[in-house]
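Lecture 7 notes: from sequence to structure.

We start with a single chain of 350 residues. Read the sequence below before looking at the structure.
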Amino acid sequence: MKSYKVVEFGKPLQKVEETNPAPQGTEVLVRVTAAGVCHSDVHLWEGFFDMGGGNKVSTQKTMNPPRTMGHEIVGEVVAVGPDAKGAKVGDNAVVYPWIGCGKCWYCNGGIEHLCPTPRALGVNNDGGYADHVLVPHAKYLYPYGNLPVELACLYACSGITAFGAVKKAVGQDGGKPILVIGAGGVGLMGVRFAKSVLGHQPIVADIDENKRKLALENGAIAALDPRDKDARKQIQELTGGTGVGAAIDFVGAESSAQFGLKALGRGGRLIIVGLFGGNFSIPLPMFAFTGCQIVGSVTGSPAEMKEMMDLVTAGKVTPVPVIKRKLDEADATLQELRKGLIMGRAVLVP
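Now the structure, written as tokens:
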């Protein structure tokens, strides 16, 4: 088995050749046919997340290198453990990577993506920057119909993350456009799902002119530069003077969160998804004065994964732009993503 592992944080991924693992118990061995390169992989590779104020949270215990990253995985089942049920050799599927311990309150309640002791593929366990990956159970395999593999894999993270965030805007939009902040790979997924889930195209804000153009090409009703002094005025005009009922921040920086908060109408909801880092403050009485809400959103549950894949395989979601790279280009692709040079989503193929 060939894989590209984080051996030392901040250093080039290392190619490792080893014997294919043999699935035990309920495990399933999947031959990887495509794996997405996600922006969260950059933070995992760096070894920390920026909490603002000079504070960082290490990923040492989470990753425990050497570790094969890659949590957006699609592939073919090539072997099953003696107790495996629900999959057979030859099945093709997207792999749900946000796997919990299987025993706690969160896992038993169907929200194992929030499990405090996770076994997430590409994070806690080895993932898809490889030609094979071991999956704990067949229940984490989802059919993807006739989708190209390079698109199908993206729904395991950027897809489910965007879908889960947009679902939190349901009932908040008031029949008006929501605001999507950040038109990177996940943000573009958010643009697509806003149309299919909420029924109308969103407003997009991004500081990059090329990404604003891409957002318009992918269904945004308008694309604004949040640094523009008239940006908030434009949002007011686009929403009939009320402000947006929901803003989804796919950046997660102090400036993006503040922009999203100020774009809200009364009772509006700011949904924070991005992991750029930093902090921001708000006078506590403002929650009571305006009725605003701030919520976090992290990936999505297995049930949401099924709901999303049903929507996607039914042809109700327009694809996002995809850039294909060879598995052997894993490190170079990761560095391009870190530098902001990737437009759309990057995918590794054998």
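The chain has a mean pLDDT of 96. Keep this in mind for problem set 3.
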